[in-house]
Amino acid sequence: xxLRVEFTTEPFDLDEAPPHAxxxxxxxxxxxxxxxxxxxxxxxxxGGADQVLGAxxxxxxxxxASGATRVSxxxxxxxxxx
Length: 82
What we know:
This protein is an alpha+beta fold.
C-alpha cells in the first residue's frame, strides 16, 4: 500500500521558519519517501505505508519536541502504479 501525507506545523512565522518547521521538513526530507515537496504553507510526501507511517511518527515526536503547538496532517491511500 502507498500513502500520501500532507502536513503543516504551527505556530507560523512569516519572517523566518521556526525550529519545529525546520525539524519537520528535515525528518520528511531524510526519510525514505518519494515525491517530497516542502513549502512555506504545506508539505507533502508519498511512499510505502511503513515508510510514511514511520516518518509521521518521527515528524510528530520531533516537531512537538521542537516547539510545535499544533501539527495538522492528512494521510491518504493512493494508487500504486508500480
